[in-house]
Amino acid sequence: MNQTRTLLFFALMFVAYLLWTEWEKDYGPHPVAPTPAAQTDAAAGAGKANADASVPGTAAPATVPNETAAAPTDGKGEQVTLSNDVLRLTIDTRGGSIVRSELLAYPDEPATKTNPTPPPARLLDDTPEHFFAAQDGLVSSNGAAPDHRALFHAEKKEATLADGQKSVSLDLTWTDASGVKVVKRYTLKRTDYVVDLDQRIENGSSAAWTGNAYHQLQRVPAPKANWFKAYTDPAQHSFFGAAWYSPENKFESLSFLDFAKKPLNHQITGGWISMLQHYFFVAWIPPADQNVTYSSTIVDPNSATPRYLVRAFGPAIQVAPGQSADSVARLYVGPKLQGTLDVIAPGLELTSNYGWLTIIAQPLHWLLSKLHAISGNWGVAIILLVLLIKAALFKLTDAQFRSGARMRKLQPRVAALKERYGDDRMKMQQAMMELYKKEKVNPMAGCLPILITFPIFIGLLRVLSESIELRQAPFFGWIHDLSAPDPLYVLPVLYFLVTLLTQRMMPTAGMDPTQAKMMKVMPLIFGVFFAFFPAGLVLYWTVNGATSLLQQWWINRSVDKAEIKARTA
Questions:
Q1: For residues 562 and 567, what is the distance between their CA atoms, to the nearest angstrom?
Q2: d(Cα 358, Cα 350) in Å, to the nearest integer?
Q3: What are the record's GO terms for cellular component (predicted)?
Q4: Could you read off the pLDDT of 8-20 as tens digits, one per residue?
Q5: What is the CATH number of domain 31-53+78-110+118-353?
Q6: Mean pLDDT of all residues in the chain?
Q7: First-to-last CA distance in the chain?
Q8: What is the pTM of this model?
Q9: Is the distance from CB of 482 to CB of 470 less than 8 angstroms?
Q10: Where are the domains of the chain?
Q11: Per-residue pLDDT tens over the stretch 528-549
Q12: Furthest-apart CA atoms within the chain: distance in Å
């Protein structure tokens, strides 16, 4: 396969990949829908017709008002804050839920002269249009229990990690006239995005208390973007929805489009459940030894802003009179930091959601991070990664480029064959094959390099698109954010020039006229196409194209010298 067909192959495969990723969002494999028995159990657990879909039920659930009913009349909740050096949480005492989280190390937008200190990125959010909350609570079949709408009391309005402290905690207390008391404690450690939750149940009543703890994430999806933003915003190409992990089935996901069609209902031991978005995610992580029921539902599905909910419903807890028991869980609220997440819980690094390219993308991310540790600049690390990949594949690409150089030398003879046989394509192809055989040129020499380099390119595309490390990472000069398009379009123009020069070096004799016309406009198409891609990706592809161009030029020159030497010998 000559260089012309190589470029066309890459173009078609790249477009096919983009189409495939979009198809997967709507029609790809998703979790198996629950069996009729499971659906019956789920319906029974939902309680009566007026039960709140956001509150789980036990074997004999109490009737709970739905979310659209009047607010509880036992007082108004207040907001309190819990902070460490990387995370600031806002907790509503109405339910003791985390309703807002600010990632202090990640500005919402790059700093500018007019806005040198932009606000931190917000993940959990209590505004109606971006509602996203991490909720937890208790339900009981034979006594009082505080769910995620009960009114708690906080002893202080703010708890902040002080210098020299390793951790900071905030307690919220709920009491019932029967003597049951629940103390909900949230704890943050220094430089940690994990929130430790301990719900301590103190049974001061005269009867045994039986109930369950649950932890859930509830959010309103982002509004649908217009076509231009859907194409230019890298976040629009990232998975947005629910995901969970089990030791048996590993990582699974559920888009918001499939919540109604294929609801989750699984029992898992040693797993976690999450809501994912570009760069960040939130995940509830129950104790690894607990058998937990994971489920999904839509709260108020007929409203203008339905909320999508995923829940982890824990095993039964029994507390004898005069005794106490603790229900613990962890909540991760933060970035998709590769290399650190699997330490928190098995499979948590899969939240980067590289899909079937994980086996390629994860090693590339590891290598890229090592190169950044050496260079101190993510743009330089991308360039170094290109050079390493080119060096590793040098022998393969050398055979491809030498085949292209020899075929380029045969262009006059191929043109003569085309003139001789005219429109007789069969005789033309036979004559070309005989010519290639006589001159010992293998037109298929470029196939193997393509089969190897294309998955690497797509894997790196996923890495550069999903890596939180490249978010707002500067390169040099005018490029202040490698995860955003080049603001001056310099890199797309350079890529256009590289592609144009590469095309000039390709053999074109014997090419179909339609294919030849396509090749002439291909550099411009790709230049425009890459104008809206993240600068980091365009940097990679520009440097990759430039090194390939240099390699092809050098090989063409060496083939010319060898031919001259053979004629003069």
A1: 9
A2: 8
A3: plasma membrane
A4: 455 555 555 555 5
A5: 2.70.98.90
A6: 82
A7: 31
A8: 0.80
A9: yes
A10: 3-17+362-568, 31-53+78-110+118-353
A11: 878 888 899 899 889 988 998 8
A12: 108
Between 55-69, 290-304, 442-456, the lowest mean confidence (pLDDT) is in 55-69
Q: What is the pLDDT of residues 25-82, one digit of tens each?
A: 444 444 433 333 333 333 333 333 334 667 776 444 433 334 545 556 667 889 999 9
Nearest C-alpha neighbor of 494 from the set 541, 462, 448, 532: 541
Of 26, 102, 36, 15, nearest to 454 by C-alpha is 15
* pLDDT 10s digits, 77-100: 899 999 999 999 999 999 999 999
Among candidates 514, 431, 534, which has minimal Cα distance to 473? 534
Bridge partners (DSSP) of residue 266 are: 294
Q: What is the pLDDT of residue 3?
A: 42
Q: Could you give the CA distance from residue 181 to residue 201 in angstroms, rounded to a whole number? A: 6
How is 89-138 classified by DSSP, letter by letter?
EEEETBTTEEEEEEEEEEESS---SS-SSPPEEESSB-SGGG-EEEEEEE
HSE, side-chain direction, 13 A CA sphere, residue 514: 0
For tokens 């390169």, name the residue: 475
